[in-house]
Fold each of these.
Amino acid sequence: MNSILRHLTPPTIRFVVLFLSYLTVLVAATVQLLAARELIAFLFYASFLFFVLVPPRVPLLRTKGHPTRTPEWWYTALAILGLLLLLGSRIVPFLRYGATPLGYDTGFYWEYFNLIVPAQTIGTAVGSHLAYATWFPLAALGLGAIETITLLHLVHQLLTAGALYLLLATIVPRRIAHRVAACSVFLFAVSTIQFSAFWWIFYKQSQALPFFLFALALFFRRSWLALPIAVFATSIHLPTAIPLAGGFALYVLLAIVTPIVRRQRIPRDVLLLAVSGIVALVAVVLIRSPDEIKGYIEVLLQYRGFATAAQSWEIDRFKGLFLPFAVARIAALYYLPFAFIGLLRGVRMLPIWRNGRRAMSPPDLLITAFAVLFLLVSFPFLHQHRSLILFDVLLLVLAAPSLAWFMEQYGSRGKIERVTIGLLLFGMTFSLAFIVWNQKPQLYADEAAELAQLHPRNDPEHHIRDGEHNYVMVTSSLYTPWAYAYTGFDRTIAPGWLRWDLWDLPQWTTFWTTKDDAKRLDLLRMYGDSTIYIFVGRHVLEQATGSPMITFLETSPYIVQFSPHIWKYSQYADLWGGGIPDAYAP
């Protein structure tokens, strides 16, 4: 007993408390997501990393003496591998599913392109003028809407990888900068959260993100260029800037209040930061226009900041139409322990009011931003799910130094340890490959061809879309932008979207679920003598096969099947021909 007590020195006690705190946080983050066996395996993995990276009797933050036994070229190869994985994972969906394999907003950006490029002006209808400025030179080279949007969307991913490299190379010691920065590029490439953000084609957010990271790196380099680049990024996508601005404002506030409480002089560079923030805010208001900023504020006040204050069917849209927090936590399991250890190292460098510390310290600002984003993604605030993209980027920033140190510390021990590192990197790569390969498109190529058949240019004799009273209808909002784009951006009926929808939610619910076909016909007759082409995509058919709505489409005398996923409705029973046209016949 006495021998045990002799070993309970203050460093040992601190180590045990730190380890238990580490496990407690990881259990709290994953216990509701993983089965018992999976949770135990994950905790063994996390514990192994902890004992390698934070051995007993070694300070948590070691600023000197980082081993650098692994050759520099190995990290260069890791960065190149990351770039290859980044390109491959983003290109594979196009190779498998055609020109439009990405997510929901593709159709709307397609519409914006066709609105502004022929007019040679952006105007006010689509907003975010700077976000679309790069379309014009590519359109002048002869690229179409999909080619332009896709190419630039891919460029934004490469820019983000480059910005992460610059940021990590800035905030870590120069002698290990390349090693840590290379790890950040690899982690970004294998992050399934970042792939999902690409797949959902959050075009403006993915365009603004690298410029925010560039601005942050320049900020830590004390360059005046950080201010105009941050303003530029904010002008592209204001919702991305709001949580980052919140972290910056909290950081500046703490840096001002702390010396006041201590009765000390406020550092000059802190005052400069506060003035710079005010200048940036004024510049953004002038660029985006006061009315637009006022609109954001009104929405924020209307819903008191919470998406759950909206109508039930609007909650997902106000949260940001992206991965839930639970799914994101599962996707980040590989690098979550690395990130948390990196967070502990950063916290060890706090508080920001430590005597002799510079006001522009990377750990101070990054951890403050992390705290703000963690709050925003943990509760149903407006834009909660879209904030996960930024939160994941900060996880990668925190994880990269720990991963680099792990490869140095553990990989230098022998061949088996290097094989273990290789298996870890392979596991991350395999996880990404599995997600990419199994990511189905929202609209398959054959469905796109069916919708395109309804476009007037594909029907020279105007048998399909002739007359101003013909409509295209989608029975799920999932297909709204696709039908809108492929059929010529005209007269698309969609649940809760676009101006041609005459039904409220109870009426749509009746159309989806009622067993009374007479009620469905009454709803369709609200569109007068119009012909309505009703599109039911594969995702809906897989879930609704045998449902009353599908039975109605297949049996009603007022409806004939136009193609495998499109039914043609007319209030007159003398529909032309009946049956599937020869072009779509099996």
Amino acid sequence: MRVAVIGAGAVGGALALLLDRAGHEVVLASRSSAEPARGGRRTLNLTGAFGEHRAAFAQASRLTGAFDLALIAVKAQDTQRAVAPHLAMLAATPTIVVQNGLEGAATVELLLAGLADANARGFVAGGLATFAVNRPAPDEVRATAKGSLTLGAASTAHLSRLEELAAALSPALECVVTDDLTSALWSKLLINQVNALPAVTGLSVQEIGLDADLLGVLASSIGELLAVAAASGAWLVELGPLDRALVDLANATPLDTVEDLARNRRLARELSAAFGPTPNYASTQQSITRGEATEIDALNGAVVSRGLMRGLAAPVNELLTSLVHNREGGSRQLTPADVRAAVITATVNSWFTREHRQLAWRLPTTTAWGVLVSETMLQQTQAARVEPKWLDFMERWPTPAAMAEATEAEVLRFWDRLGYPRRALWLLACARAIAEEHDGRVPETREALLALPGVGPYTASAVMSFAHGVPEPVVDTNVRRVLSRAFLGEETPWGPSAVRDAAEMRAVAPADPTAANLWNAASMELGAVICTAKRPNCNDCPIVGLCAWVSAGRPASTTIKKPQAKFAGSDREMRGMVLRELRAIPGGVEIEFLRRHLDPDGADSLRFDRALTSLKVDGLIFERNQAEIALTGD
């Protein structure tokens, strides 16, 4: 056969050399105007798994004349530029697009559709190469693992022609025909899931499968692909390293989360190992090494775009696509731990964007004052209890200046049973300080926030992040639990510590400020609604496949916890009862009258006295004439 090859890189060069060795006449398309014009020659050299072969090929800037077959082996993004000079020839020639991604054959068909005089002899099919090749130098091709070429067309009308072509090509390399090109393309896309991580880390495909952190990342990206493929109606088929056992595994519907994770991890291990004993760095890393653009948008990017069409998120594939583009732009290689942290944060951020609770203070119209109020109310109080109170509060005191005019008694009565009423007085003191010292505007620096009454490191960080867009680490109990489980594989081994919490959060937070602020909110949400303390819902967790705690078998905490004191009969209960009565009695009440009302049989006299003492110390009540007590401000 006389064969035209457009794109004599690693795959195209290997095909050209194998076909030449089998006796076919091969003509190459010139890669650029800098190469010899029509009639020039180019010498390629093959080594490795297919043996050795060296050949000089004719090449032309515009392929003309009659060809029995055309092979297009360029990256997806280069297709239009590469084939444009040769469209007339391609229209008259059976054309196989040997390209990664899902759109290769369709793109060429679209380019040919505009030719009015297309010869009926030509048609376009897809080609899927499953051999592994590197291009260590511009004209050198090294095969690291043998494989086959699978041919398929969108129309079954071309199956007989493809069978003839496969028979003609088979002396050069194993060549088979599929009647389901779509499923074959998805199968190749699954194999190509190994491409991104070598580019990001500098490790070989084989090393990816041996690293625990990266294996989890690869398994998660594979899980996303399988979900999108299933939603797209694709049924994975045997192809290259995808033997019958792996295909059955990939097409299986897992019964539960554990089975799903095991399936994805096994596929990740098997595909990584399938590249043979010689280290293979995959085409994406090779492109970066050569200073060329990669085809990552047609690989992991295709999972993202097809997922969007089906309403499915693919955050791991989206991040890997972004990380490869960063490497194209000159960014450093990442360690496995860096990659895992980036994938976890990006996945949780994506989940939060889709699934977060529509809490009132999360609206973009919320002011910095509204954020300060919400963070104060949320301390040790559930969001469901806080939200209606916050809405009433913001309607009554929409600005610090408005609240500054209130009395302590008004604020305490408003606070009612929200709990921990000292917070109400802290807010009032904050409002007055903001009104008097900051012209009614919530400070925009951490130092100024910390100088406000009642504002500690956590609240200052939360206001900086959620109100002012400065990504200070924000760590509450929920975030601490997520950090410990996901990254350390333990139940929370430490209590609150502003310094340690900030260090732990900074170590994993995204570098991008917007993403880091989102991670603050997203990790908090994950701990509040999924990664809960007593009954974590791992089945619905977006990072279950990456969680070190789940991988370790969800070990129980080794920390001995103090038993929580009962509320009934406690001093806290008595404090609440005293405040409840004083809120209902403007101006105060005689101490002994209140004592008899709350403790008619005298059994709780000491508890009553302790409650009064602690309430006075906290500034919530004051005593008149040593006989009466009232809410502060009455």
Amino acid sequence: MTTSPNRRFAVLAVAVLLIAAVQSGVPVTAGALAQPADLGSGSPNSSAWSRAGLPVVDPPSLSVPPVPSDTALPSVDPVASDTPTPTEIPTPTEIPTPTDTPTPTEPPATSEPPVSTPPVPTDPGSEPVPVPTGAPPSHPTGNPGPTSSHQPHTKPSTGKHPTVKKPTTARPHPHKTLRPAAPTPGVRRPHPHRKPWPITLTVKTVPALAGVRFTVDGHPLTTGSNGLTSYTAEHDFTGHRLSVVSASVSQDSQRFQFTRWAGQRDPNQAFSRTVSGLPLRSNYVVTAAFTVQRQVSARVIRQDGTALSASEVSLITARSDTGAKVELPPGAPTWLDSVRPAFHHSILSAEPVSYSLQSVVVRGSNVVDAGRQTFQPMATANPTFTTQFFDLTITGHDALFKSALGTSATVTFPDGGTLTRTMDARHTLTLTDLPRGRYQVTIAAGRSIVGSQQFSLSKDKTADLAVITARDLAVLLGALVLLAVALVVIGRQYWRRLIRRRGRGTELAVPLREKILT
């Protein structure tokens, strides 16, 4: 028997409906499968279902009970349950409309699909909370369920498996910067990017001195025999303080005086005893430079090499190559800088200090030329200075007759002091080793008149003073008298000659006048 296409389509539709009904759990009767009309021929009494050999019932057309929109379909785990996953039930519009509709009857009663309640997660160690039968499932995160006044809004099932949310912990915002926790007082916060590591600050002395004391933030340090000491702490950017405690150190016949720093980072603190703001970012060295001082005792001699006693010298001054003026007490040692640290082009070096002699004062007069004699304490501790002393010879003579005269002589020194000495039989007085300077000399010769003489003693000199005696005065007076008499005699002769010349002129003038008138 030949099967028509309409019949094959009807059998296929019935099979689809049966499968959908089984999957949805809705009971299907034979009447529901009966069609009011033959899909193949269109006749209401000749059904294709009966010709196919299926039992035919004449109930009304198949009706599928609607699913309430506010009732959520149960979520069934396809792995844990053997019940097939419900799929969408085609709406009645999808079924072909019969030509002849029989009298409708009441649809068979259908049972509601079972509702499964997912397990409620509980905290370990706490008692499980009983869930009442028929109550809606709890929220996956553990929050309490809705009350009677607020029913949860559920969406109709779309055929997909609903996912159960698992409890999660709060996660920081991906673009929000978290504020750092406040530091605990007294606890050092570690480096935000690296682990702390030790940093060493080395303090070095130039020249190398042992026993020099320093402090770093109050922590005491002492240099060893190599002149080095160090301070180690964790890496940080905090400013630290370095101070020198032993600013003056004495060893043997030398003394060391702190002068400056090198490598202290701040140039304004190079010559201060305390340096602040030192960071501990990397290992580095700070140098403490000291000036070497040495005891110097000056020796003063004359040109002939004889030593000059310290009691005769009142002051000795010298000037260093830096322009500093120093005084050297006669006959006593004094501390002078012998080696000084110098910082040129970022290089610290030691330079010897030179001095130039400025003055050696004896009896109020400088007996040396300033700047002509130099010395270095590093080379010698007993510099010798040569002074200028000269001899002075004093004599007197008669002013008119040039004979030697004078019994004593008085010398006034540059400082105002005087010295009187008796002249010898030759009326001469010699004074040796007089410091150079300006002097004044006078002599005494009885009742004679004696003048004074001033001069600068810069070499050996003889001072010869003239003496006016009574005999010289008498001679001078007699000479004056003779001069006066001579003048008188000469004057009389002159006047006589003048009168005569005038008389002769008058006698000649009278006859000449008369001749003219006549």
